[in-house]
Each structure stands twice: as C-alpha cells, then as structure tokens.
Amino acid sequence: MSAHRLETGGRLIDRTRRVRFTFDDAPLRGQAGDTLASALLAEGRMLQGRSFKYHRPRGPVTADSAEPNALMGLDTGARAEPNVRATSVQLSEGMVVHSQNRWPSLAFDVGRIADRLARVLPAGFYYKTFLWPRPFWKHVYEPLIRRAAGLGRAPEGVDPDRYEQLHAFADVVVAGGGVAGLAAAWAAAQGGARVIVLEETGHWGGRAVVDGLVIDGHPAEAWVTATVAALEGLANVTLRTNTSLTAVHDHGYVLADEWPQDAGAGIAAPRQRLWRIRAGRVIAANGAIERPLAFAGNDVPGVMLASAVRDYAVNYGVAVGRRVVVVTNNDDAYRTALALREAGVEVAAVVDARDTLPGPLAQQVRAHGIPIHDGSAIEAVQGDIGVTGVTLCRHSGNGACVSAQIACDAVAMSGGWSPAVHLWSHAGGKVVWDADGAMFRPDPAQGPTGHDGAVFVIPAGAAAGALWGPQALADAHAAGLRAAAETGHPGHTPAPVAEAPEERAILPVWTMPEGAGPRLKSRMFLDFQNDVKVTDVELAAREGFESVEHAKRYTTLGMATDQGKLSNINGLAVLAAARGAGIAETGTTTFRPPWTPLTLGAIAAEARGELFQAVRETPMHAWHAAHGARWEPVGQWRRPHAYVRPGETPAKAVNREVLNTRQTVGVLDASTLGKILVRGPDAGRFLDMLYTGTMSTLAVGRCRYGVMCTENGFVFDDGVVARIDATTWLCHTTTGGAEAVHGWMEDWLQCEWWDWKVHVIDLTEQLAQIAVAGPNARRVLQKLGGMDLSADALGHMRWAAGRLGDFDARVLRVSFSGELGFEVAVPASQGPALWDRLMAAGAEWGIMPYGTEALHVMRAEKGFIMVGDETDGTVTPGDLGLPTGAKKADFLGKRGLERSHLRDPERWRLVGLETLTGSVLPHGAYSVTGGYTDTYQRETDGRVTSSYYSPTLGRGIALGLVRRGPERMGEVLTFPVGAASQMKARIVDPVFFDPQGGRLDG
Amino acid sequence: MLMLTCPCCGVSAEETEFAPGGAAHLRRAGPGTPDDAFEAYMFQRDNPRGVHFERWRHAYGCGKWFLAARCTRTLRVLGTYSARTTEPPADLAAEPPVDLAADLRAPAAEAPA
Ligand SMILES: [Zn+2]
Fold first, then answer.
1. Which end of chain B is more exposed for a tag (fewer CB within 10 A), N or C?
2. How far apart are CA A257 and CA A272, in angstroms?
C-alpha cells in the first residue's frame, strides 16, 4: 500500500485516540481528528469512488469541500446520507461508510464496461442516441441508465434527526476563517460592528498554517491562536466553525450551514443548523481553489492536487505515496515538495512547465537534492487503479518524444489557483479575467448591490485575487476596515504584516503538453465526477456549442455535485482555445448558490409533521373529533368529512347523514365559510363592481347569491350576500376563498378606487356559524325560544337578528341542501354551547350532524355548483348558468367576458349526467366524440366535474361541462374508463331533486 | 431576499413579510375598450432592465398596498411610495448614476494604523 500514516506529524490528529469505523463492511481504524478521507488514506485506501459516467476508479483529489471523487454514503436506513464528501466529513466512532456508484464492489465494477466504450460514448451521446427510437428509450436505455447511474442511495424511512434554523443579524459576516478572514474580522470588529465569522472546516487558520506564512514575526499558527482568542474576547463577535456560508442572496441575505459536532451526543443537538443571516456587508474571505492540470491519466487514483498532498502530510500525518512526483506551472506546488521532504517522504522530481529562472522556493527544493525538470510536462501517468509511474516530455511539444520515465506511486499537481469567486458572484457580482495571474477575480467595478445601491460583498485575500500571503493579509485587513466603516462602525487597528518567499509568475497551462494530440487529450479529464475530457469539450466546440453555457450542458462539465469547482476554469479555457477565442471573451458559467450542497433536512428544518403548516379549527372542533369526524383539509381548515359511527364505513355514514337531513333534520358546522363585512357610503357601488349580480339594490334584511369573477371573466368565488343596513353588507365566501376575497377587496379599494368610502373587515373567525337543515329544522330552532322564525316572519333568502334561546344570533334563511335551511351565527365563543343546545333540542327529531361530503352530495342533487369542482379558473358564469351581469355597465370581469371566445356558443356548459345503468361516473372523466384532433388526440366534448352516489335517488348522479350542453338534453355521451371499457351517460337537467323547490319551505 | 420599507407604516422588513402584486401603474381597461387595450392591461408587461415600478402589499404587517421603484439590474430600491398615485414620482423615474467604478479599497486603505 502506497498511502500510509507517517510516524510523526499531523497537527490536527490525536495519535492517542483511535476511532473505529467500517468502509464497505471492512473494519478500519483512524485517529481522532481525521477526516474520513485521511483515515482511509492512512489505511492504504486510495480507491474511494467510481466516476459517474464511465465508472472509472477514483481516489480523492482534494482535502476539502471541492472534492469531486470521494463521495460516500454515510450511515444506513433512515439516517442514510448519500454523496457526503469524505474529504470534509470528520471521522467519528462507529461510522458506517459505503462507497457509491459501483456494483458489485468498489474494486471490481461491471459498470466499468462503459469506460471501455468511452470512444463511442462522447459528449452529447445521450441527446444524440437515446431520443430515438422511442420504445428503446422506455424499455432499453432508461432501465440501463437507471441501474448504472445514480450517485448514492436515498435514505429509507423518516429522518429521525432534528434540524433547526436560526435567524441572525450582523453588520459584517465573514466567510472563511483563514488568516484573511480572521484579519478582516479583527479589523471589522474594532469599531463595535456586530461580526459573525464562519469557517467551513473544524479548524481556524486555513492554508496559511500549512503553508508556513509568518505573521507579525510569528508562525501563522501562533498568530491564528492569538487572534481567535482575541476575537473570542469581543462581545460583538460570534465565531463558528463547521459552518459553511453557502449562499449569498439579494440585499445581504445569506445562508450558512452548520454541522454541530456534538450532534447525536444529546437531544439538544440538531444534526444541522441553517443560519439565515441578514448582513450589512459580507466579506468573502473564502480563499482560492487549486486547479488540476490536464495531462493524460490525470484521474488515476494517486494523482492529487499539490495542496491536498501537503494538507494530508501536515494536518493528518498521512503520506499519499512513498515516492511522489510534483508537477506544476507555479511556485506554490514547491511547498508540497518541501512539506513531503520535511515529513520524510521521497520526492522523485518536480516537473515544472516553465523555463524561467528559479525563485527562492525552487532553490530550497533544489538544495534538498530534488531534481527539477523545467520546461517539462507529464506525457502520461502509468497505472490503472493506482499510479505506477509517469513519463515526461517537453511541455512545448506534442508529447511524441518521451524524455524520461519516473517510477512513482503518487502525483501532486498544481495548475495554479482560482479565487473562489462564488460568494461574490451569487448575488450578481461580475468577474474579470486577470491574464497575468491566469485567473478570474472579482471585478471591483461590478459588485452585487444592496437595497441602497451600495456593493455589499467585499472580497478579501485570495478570494479577491491576492494569492500571495502577505498581499492577502493586507487586503483582508483593508476589507475589514471598509466593511466596518460602511456599516457605521469605523475603527482602527494596525495591519498585520506577513512574510513569505517571493513567487515567480505562473505559466497558464490548459493542456499538458501544450501541443498534445487526441491520443493524449482523450485521457485528460477536466470534470472528474462527470468524466468530461478535453476531447469532449473540443467536440462540443466543433459541433457549434460555442457559448460556455451551452457547452457546459452539452458535455455536463461542471454539472456534478461539486458544481465544477475544479473543472470550470480549465474547461472554459479549453473551450476558448478550441474556438480560437480568448478566455475573457469566452467568459464563465454562472456561479449560483449554494457553495456546498444543502440537505433537504436543513431546508425544511422544523417545518414538518404538525409544524408543517398552521391548522385552523372551528370552535366546535373538539366536539367533531369526539364524535367520529373524519377530517377533510380545506385550505388550512379541517372540516368533518363525515361522522363515522362504530362499525360504519365512511360511505355508509355519508348516506345516513344525507337521508337523515332530507327526512328530518341535520346540522353542519359552517363556521369556516368566509364572512366579510363591507361598510360605507360607497359599499353598494363597490359590491356591484365585485359581483356579476347587483348588490346595491338588495333590500335590508334580504340575502342574495353572488358570483365573483377575475378581470379575465372567470369565476373565482361565490356565496350569499346579506344586506345588514343602509351602508353595510355581509359577504359570505367559500371556505378556501376568504383570504383571497378579502385581499381582492383591499386591492381594489387601496389601489384603484381609493377615493371610495368603503372599509372591509374579515369576520370569519369571530363568528361560529351552524347550518340547520331539513323538514324539522324550524321546529328545532323554535324549541330554543326567542326569535320568530316562522315562514311569515323569515322567508327564504332573508335574515334576522335577535335572541335565540340564550344566544345573540343572526339567523339567515338560506339553503345549500335544498331543504328548509337556516344558518345561525353567534360569537365564536358561543359556538360549542349553541351546538350542544341544538343537538339536545333536536334529539326528539333524530337530529344528526352531517359533514362536507353529505353537503356536497345534497348540493349536487340540487345542481348547485361548487367553486373548485365545477370551476377551474377557465369557467365563466355563463358556462354555469349563473348571473352574467349582461345588463350591468361594468363589474370586474365584464370586459373579459366581452371577448368572442368567452361568448362562443360552442363553450362547454353545465348539465347533469346520468349513466344508463345508474352507476357512478368517475370524477374527472371525459366524453369522446369518436373523432380525432389535428394532433391525433381523441376529440372530447365534455367532462365530469362532480360525481356522487345519491342515496336520495338510489343511483349515481353527476354534474359536468359539455359542449353546447343545455342544447343537447337527452343525448347519450361516451366516457372511456380505463384502457378498454367505457360508460354511457345521458345529458339531463342539473337539478336532480325537487326541481320545483317545494322543500325549501319545509 | 429583498429588503423593502413600507411607506405606510415605516417598517423596513424582509421580502417574506410582503406579498408581490406585479407591475404598478396599470390602467384598467373596462367594458367597451378595444381588444388591444384589454390585452395590454391583462397580459402585456414590460420587463425592463432598469427601473421597474411594482406593487407590494405589507401582507404580514399593516396590510397596506404600496408601490416600489426597483432597479432590476442592481436590485437597488430607489424608493417606495403610496399606491394612491397614477404616475411614479418624478425623482424615482430613473436610476441615479452609481459610482461603481470607484476604487473599492480607497477609503479603508487610507485609514490610520
Ligand atoms: Zn406597513
């Protein structure tokens, strides 16, 4: 095994504490402080994953959250979590880890056959091949892809863990706890600004502590320890590790994802905590991302970023190989050679694409006797599931002449560093190509602006393009002072001064060697997770995908779970070269949130189960619950669907409730109906504009049914309106529509007719309302005593207020069932008492409560429409036989209804439907004419909008919308049901029961 | 998530406290108007790259509708104002030039040590 734990070193691990875990069921051991990836490497496990498309064997490339390869499934069952980056997750005792995207095992994977076929699976292959012939997609390609693809497995069962969200406010949020972030935070905090510092990993200091920066004369680690301690001493500063600032949204709204490390230790700890922070300024001190180099075989396990190789050595005491070759185009990678040398690992050579004079870092390497091959490139990596060697060639050539062969078991590569511009870009910051630095960096002239027009993200340090340590620190200090000043908390503190060796200029290298042909390019990987190679991007360019956004989607470059952190810049540089265009004009793809993936658990947090949504209960809810109510959600309300007795089916309960109401008397909790009071000198005029009918002429004491339309002319709500007094009307709405109608009224009054003297109040929850219906309804109410509810005193569609028994009541004589009906409204607090009183008073007539389903059956028997059943946002009042307002000069929807299509006699209109056998039509069924449309669909000419079994009539009844329906009474329509059968139904009048309305009088 | 200030009650709050209502200053096309006028009122909306006048309701606050002038390019909110107007206030009709090119580091770099 090449990768191994070193005898010494490892600043982040505790060598006295062993941690046991399993990987694909093999028991392994790491040390406290390890990441999963470092522990696996220490155990010699370089092979940690398989790529998505070709199932190629892969090892980790990074030691941080940019990792594309080492994705693991953590835990099993309900706690299973797929696609966890082994490079960023802390090892914990008893951890159960599985590799992904392989079958039957990680070492032997049959999916690898796709790799052998790579030549015939080029970019765009899916688009080109799988579209045709269609049956092949369904029966061959899709099952194949589904089996082979898919990163990780979804958890099974309900997540047992707790997630929480936290709202915070800060003047300055600092993303990144490296030396730049800490320097910026210290500077920002001096004037009293509220500062939050978020570090993605479990440790402060970032790269500088590994790279040996000297700050104010001290090693970076000492400076970091002192600065963190000083920050902890400030009351206005909050420090958080294991917290990733993952998204910057408009106007300084940022999301940070915390993984509390005490999770699981006790009930108090959530598994994840999502911080929702409103920040005055965001300092993006989130560093830079090292780029891989594109050389043949750059994806063989053991080829890693140079920074990762030294991170594993310095932080975890892990050598990724026993003999390492470093390949680079910049000075920073020389630090890896020095770190390995310091750790006692043999460095076979440094391969540098540049021909330039040696700088101080190269001189140190040379002084250790490590050979440096300048002007050179890796021609190819040898090895399959592990590196066995490299062949070298001139970088400026085409790779035809191999100049040397070096045996090695790991390669540390560096193609330079890209500032992590993601946080700058999330809310609209633009980047500019810096040709000297071979990088995109934030363009200070085009930053993301807040509500006041000021730029609210301040990049700092490497993220701003200041890659050299001393510059980064000075830049970050200035950023901190600026953020504090701009948020009204200016302060002063000396800038820290850092020392580091001078670095020579980078040589941009996009393929290695420069003139490589297809033989080598077809083995140069750009996107490791999605297996996108240099040749794929060149093919996309040849096929005309010149836009970087198109090429990305065609090749899938940068579309994996790492969102192209490593591949974006290399990929677009290759695209630019293939187009013969510059990198600046080719541009980047868009950097969208999140920086690291967010789990659904963190996004949902406590909003699940009972807390998912508020539930509204009527005053009589407890009574319903105690009497067998099966609930129906209507908006946020819960209404009794039916009161099911022991031994009874819900269907039988509905039939019983209908028959009892028709035969004697029933009560319904109607409290959820919207009740909106409209008052003022212009109230009548206002309501005439809202309803298709006329409400201003309604006499005091009377009620009128009304329909409201949108401006488009389509029905959106209905209900009974009662005229209370000269200037007051009470508008009833549907249960689900109360808020919308109230909002609709406010909108017109505030924004269009603001000079009209009207005010509206939603009284829905102030009143309990009980419908009493059936031939004995009046007898029950009169037994309570008080108000005269006789037919003479209170006719149909009238209302009266008074004392009903012990209650102050408003009684409306209205009916949705077709029976003699009253609705009694009392203050909400009196609802349960009235309900109990009615049940007691009605006992001698066998009174029963009925639910919404019985209500629906009875209204359908009467041909009354239900908004949401008979209407779907495309149905006019005329379609339903309701008042169309044809004679009115204006109302909302009038102009819309004038359009020719809404007056077309061919429109589908309301009718009743009766099957020839008495059976029940399926709700939503369509009738067919036998013809076909221009697009070879079966032509339809009607649909079922409501369908029930009518216990009153002993057969099925339905309402439907049918082309020219009312003109086609008696015709028989054909409704296909399922694949092979059909039902026949006759068009009839929609009023199935008591068409003369004689029962309204009891 | 935007920050808006309700001109009716003076509260500055997050976008989730408000409900959006689409473009402002539409002129209602009533009965008898030509089809193209009605189409413009119902369906045709400008999508400017620049100042956009829009309707918001302080839905979880005072309940009042108000209007906002917001730049769709910079997301800058130039101002919010009463819904009881038919025209945008003249001073909000165009985004004032923002000196984005100024050196972002300038003020802080000069700060005394
Ligand atoms: Zn307000």
1. C
2. 7
B104 with A479: CB under 8 angstroms? no
User: Can you tell me the distance from the alpha carbon of A794 to that of A623, in angstroms, rounded to the nearest whole number?
Assistant: 30
Give me the residue from A251, A894, A895 closest to B1, CB to CB.
A251
Within 873-892 of A, beta carbons closer than 8 Å to B belong to 889-890
ipTM: 0.88
Does A450 sit within 8 Å of B76, measured CB to CB? yes
Contacts of B58 (CB under 8 A, 6+ apart): B6, B8, B9, B11, B13, B17, B18, B64, B65, B66
Q: What pTM was computed for the model? A: 0.90
CATH no. for residue B52? Answer: 3.30.2270.10
Please state, in angstroms and rounded to a whole number, the distance separating the CA atoms of residues A76 and A912. Answer: 55
Is residue B53 one of the residues assigned to a domain? Answer: yes
pLDDT of residue B105: 35
- Tell how far the Cα of B68 is from the centroid of ligand 1, in angstroms: 13
pLDDT band of residue A104 (cuts 50, 70, 90) is low
Which strands make up the sheet holding A14-23, listed edge to edge? A26-32, A14-23, A95-99, A71-74, A81-85
User: B31 and A895: CB-CB below 8 Å?
Assistant: yes
B63 CA → ligand 1 middle, Å: 6
CA distance, residue A265 to nearest chain B CA (Å): 35
- In whole angstroms, give the CA distance from residue A77 to residue A155: 6
Q: A825: number of CA atoms within 13 Å, CB side? A: 22
Chain B hits for A710, CB-CB cut-off 8 Å, are none
A843 exposed, middle or buried (CB, 10 Å; 0-12, 13-18, 19+)? exposed
Which residues does chain A have within 8 Å of residue B32's beta carbon, measured at their own beta carbons?
895, 898
Residue B101 lies in a domain: no
Verify whether the Cβ–Cβ distance B2 to A445 is below 8 Å. Answer: no
SS3 sequence of A513-536: CCCCCHHHHCCCEEECCCCEEHHH
- The type of residue at A912 is G
Tell me, yes or no, whether B55 lies in a domain: yes
Residue ranges of domains in chain A, CATH in brackets: 4-116 (3.10.20.440), 163-288+419-499 (3.50.50.60), 292-415 (3.50.50.60), 621-672+766-858 (3.30.1360.120), 678-757 (3.30.70.1400), 905-1000 (2.40.30.110)
Tally of domains within chain B: 1
Domain extent, residue B53, equals 3-90
Minimum Cα–Cα distance from A751: chain B residue: B83
Looking at the partner chain, which of A453, A480, A494 has a beta carbon nearest the beta carbon of B113? Answer: A494
Q: Is B23 within 8 Å of chain A by CB? A: no
What phi, psi does A52 have (nearest 5°)? -75, -45
Residues of B within 8 A of A493 (CB-CB) are 113
User: Cβ distance A615 to A465 under 8 Å?
Assistant: no
Region B88-94 average pLDDT: 83
**Which tokens hold the place of A179?**
């030396």
Residue A739 C-alpha, separation from nearest chain B C-alpha, in angstroms: 11
**Alpha-carbon span A759 to A519, nearest angstrom:** 79
With beta carbons less than 8 A apart as the criterion, state whether A14 and A31 touch.
yes
Q: Which of A249, A449, A751 sits opposite B76 (nearest CB)?
A: A449
Note whether A456 and A251 are within 8 A (CB). Answer: yes
Residue with tokens 């230790």: A265
Q: Is B83 helix (H, G, I), strand (E, B) or coil?
A: coil
Q: What is the mean pLDDT of residues B79-104?
A: 73
Find the A244 Cα to ligand 1 centroid distance in Å: 34
Residues of B in contact with A448 (CB under 8 A): 75
Residue B63 lies in a domain: yes
Q: Quick one: pLDDT band at residue A676, thresholds 50, 70, 90?
A: very high
pLDDT grade for A747, boundaries at 50, 70 and 90: very high
